[in-house]
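Lecture 7 notes: from sequence to structure.
We start with the chain below.
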Amino acid sequence: MSVVLALTAAAGCSEDTPRQDGPVVLQPGEAGEGNKRVDPDQVEPPADEFNEVDREFVEMMVPHHHQAVLMAELAKTRAKNEQVAGFAQRIGDTQKAEIDVLQAWLEARDLPKAALTPSGEHATHMDGMLTPEQLDELAAVKGTAFDKLFVERMIAHHQGAVAMADRALSDGTEAINRAFAADVSATQTAEIERLRQIQKTF
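Predicted structure tokens for the same chain:
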């Protein structure tokens, strides 16, 4: 967690450190980086304060995860391939639990819970989401046809989640949310590779 240290000119100075008329503001850098001297007016927000990017990421990831859960539910009665069925079950269980974590993040910050279906501007900023027509098309097929379409569309869905997570990592500020985004990016990147391996068996 980033902590800003404001030191008076007299405090923390050694014989090798020149004194200054105003306060010296040190902001710790990222891992492996040294502290930065910054103007007090340019101090970055502490990592435990969320910004708009953090909030939007959580609000959009809830319906994004929910759609993955819906896709996984379809696999229970439509998948023929055991690898597809097993993968879908793990996705459903994992992302259903993560929705609870995301909603709790919002609640803990006195923010409204996120809708399970995208709406407004969020609906146009969510990468990888299936349209209602694409979801209906997936629900209309079974067996090998379902397996192939499920894998193809879950890859695109995961790629969208990774892109969203990477934006949160790049521009978000809140430590807990950034940790979640990093996990989404790493986990779903690995799952994309797994899906591509399954795809080769068809």
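Points to note: The two ends are 46 Å apart (CA to CA). Residues 1-20, 26-31 have pLDDT under 50 and may be disordered.
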